[in-house]
């Protein structure tokens, strides 16, 4: 059943080759002070930093930088950025990077003038901001999270060993995002495929939930087919513009809130993956890859019809003369083949997960209610153990 | 190839049962004067008029009405509405109806303060407004056009025998739209299936263009599969909420500009259909149905690969051991079966088209450049003649 919903996504996207040419026009909408946020400095090597700074200078902006945003941005770093934004009186936060930098920038935008405890308010009680929000714009250099067109902000609290995402309402969405697929060309393969699986996981988390027959289910099948198709090209030919641009565009669709409208969603794979990241600092998409097969095998009997549909409509499994279970298993088997073809990490040991960490990771794993099976603690441990056996 | 694009769609949607409950909150964003626009009075019979008026009164709004907006809104009626809006100093135009009423209201919103010749500026030169635009909100009672979430405004100039659509930029998009699937329950079957084919046609017009392998092509296959599935339920069980709500939501996706991003589009079927409407005043979706099969058969050889893909991915045609042509033809044949199952008009004679009108209809048909074949005048005539032979 398509439930009631409110949909609004005001983010303006500039997509394509040389999309940065649109930045100057956008900057006219904001005041003089631009807080430039980026990560570990790869944008200085590939020239994107210089390009962006040159536009900011030509537009007469005063720039202050917050750099060193880590792949799993920490709460301490968030507070540092919030202080900088407030003291600088930033009119715009310009995030240049991937999902981590965008997520972080949105966190800073609502933390700068927050008078409550930021962690508790946003990342424990999941409240909406009631303070001034600094507008955020994004120049995307990495693909996967969809953070460029949603209110998501995932932050890691290292003290509490918690990696938590808040999905804010549209007032926190980036005002604009610049998506040039060529900006992703220099990304190492590990990051590229990790992003690709992140996209796949976003779609699956929204697909494997409910007994619905919603438009979104059909659309998500299309998105997965497109992603599988393009990723197979990109992994052997990373400079293929058509493949990389479609992957970039699929990533945005996968998590711009649209496909979730009116339906239940799961997000347990993200909870498991985030718990692993909180303890190992492993790359986000790889943690999702490492838990997905054991997780989906475990919940398959509870949503068999959808898994059968997934096998047929996404993986072209021939259903003739087979039981639903056999069809469903063949679908997951095709998915495993694709994952190995891309070179994804299937075994959590490769991400630094050790047997003695399992109890603590289970402690950090939030248990969601929207999927086909509400996990017990024993099942969480079993999924992690299964992942550590994968070859 | 995914071309460069700018995407922005700020319309806020309230979707689901009793969605009208959200109207009062939205009205707070606008001034006192609300121009209430509706069609032939069916909303007075089904109670929607009373419901809306009661909200407007509770919110203390001053209401002026423009009623009698026809299924193919005329330019003369547009000027009447523009004058009313200007004289009333309307703060908001509230469209209550289907695509015609929404299209008309958007036209009024940009015509009210336009100092140029409205027809020439917007419907011949396709310019963007440079005058004050009155905000538009929609309460949708009929499904198909997607007008609730785009800048489209189709207006008929009866003097010039032209039915022309301008797709305005986001400043003209409705600010909000209220979509209650139950509001479509009382619609006569003829209107329902006409709207369903309008949706199908919107998707096909964007699908059958280019040699691309874009994400949008995959997504559109999902949208078509969903629509075919739900329409088969709705035509025998019009009160099926799941089917009707998914049809409503598919309609919005089909034409909220998203699936067209970065790809060529056609729209020749709409040009043919609109030309027939301009001469017969026939229902929009039915005119599209009547020309689609002859049109697609004619252009099929020029886009054979896409027609083969359409047959396999949308209509589940088994491709084994068949030529591309055979597969493609079987796809169109499945589509014809579905159209007959719904009860759509396949023969333009049923819409009032007469042999002696063909030359004039051809004169009114705009020839588009984005499809697989740029039509000659002889081909336009042939399509119309073929339609008049269908059974």
Please tell me about this protein's structure.
- The structure is a homodimer of 391-residue chains.
- In chain A, the strands form two sheets. The first copy, chain A, has a six-stranded parallel β-sheet with strand order 1-8-5-4-2-3, with helices on both faces.
- Chain A contains 15 helices and eight strands.
- The first copy, chain A, is of the alpha/beta class and 391 residues long.
- Chain A is 48% helix and 13% strand.
- The first copy, chain A, has helices at residues 23-27, 42-45, 48-58, 75-88, 99-111, 118-124, 189-207, 215-236, 241-254, 268-280, 284-299, 304-315, 324-342, 358-364, 377-387; strands at 5-15, 33-38, 62-66, 92-97, 136-140, 152-157, 162-167, 176-179.
- Chain A binds chain B through residues 1-19, 22, 181, 213-215, 217-223, 225-226, 229-230, 241-242, 245-246, 249-250, 253, 258, 261-262, and chain B through 1-19, 22, 181, 213-215, 217-223, 225-226, 229-230, 241-242, 245-246, 249-250, 253, 258, 261-262.
Secondary structure elements and pairings:
The structure is a homodimer of 391-residue chains.
Chain A lengths: L4 E11 L7 H5 L5 E6 L3 H4 L2 H11 L3 E5 L8 H14 L3 E6 L1 H13 L6 H7 L11 E5 L11 E6 L4 E6 L8 E4 L9 H19 L7 H22 L4 H14 L13 H13 L3 H16 L4 H12 L8 H19 L15 H7 L12 H11 L4
| Rg of chain A, Å, rounded | 20 Å
- Give the assembly state of these chains: homodimer
Helical residues, percent of chain A:
40-55%
Strand segment count of chain A: 8
Class derived from helix and strand content of chain A? alpha/beta
Report, as a whole number of angstroms, the end-to-end distance of chain A: 39 Å
Strand order of the largest sheet of chain A: 1-8-5-4-2-3
Instruction: Give the helix tally of chain A.
Output: 15
Most extensive contact: A-B, 45 and 45 residues
How much of the sequence lies in strands of chain A comes to 5-15%
Give the mean pLDDT of chain A: 96
